[in-house]
Amino acid sequence: SLIQDMIQPALVGGFLRADLQRIRTELEELPWIYQATVQRRWPNALEINVVEQLPIARWSDNGFLNHEGEVFQSASGQEWENLPRLQGPQGSAKALVAGYQRIVEILAPLHLRVAQLTVDERGQVDVVLEGGMQLLLGSEDFLERMHRFVAIYRAELAGRAAEVERVDLRYETGIAVAFTEESSRVAGI
After folding, report:
1. Which of 88, 90, 83, 64 is nearest to 75 (CA)?
2. Do residues 169 and 138 touch, judged by C-beta distance below 8 A?
C-alpha cells in the first residue's frame, strides 16, 4: 500500500532507529490524512493509526474544507460533488466554516439545508438553500437575522417554501420576501 511504501525508507536503519516523528509528519502531509499516530509495538512492529481527512464542504472551485476550516485538495472530488459550497476571500475559510456550522444548527429543526454560503470582500453573507431559496444576511447581526428568518419561516413561509425565491434580512426590523414570478401572479401580489 501507499503507506507501506512511504514507511519503508524510514525503517532502513532498523526498527529501533526508525524516526517515528518523521513518519508521522510524512503521513500527515498526504492530503487525505488529517491526523496520524505512530507507535512502536514490541518486539518488531509499528502501529499506525490514521484519521481520514473528511470534508464538510467544498471550497471555491476545486478545494475542500475539513471541520477545522482547513483547506485541502483531494483526488476523491467526484464523491463529494454534492457537498455544500463555501466561498469567500482568501483567509476567510475558518470563519466561514464556523458560520456555516451555526447556520446548519439553526436550520436543522426546519429541515432546511445549505447548498451554498458566500461571503464577499465587504463581508456580506449570502446563503442559498437546497431548493434554491436565497437568504441575504448582510454583514452584521448575522445570528439575530438567522433567528428572525426561522421565526418568519415557521409562521409564514413554510407552507410556500417552494415559491420563495429570496428573503432579504438586511433590515433593522422586518424582512423583504420575493416570490417566484408564477406564484406572485397566482397570489396577485
Report:
1. 64
2. yes
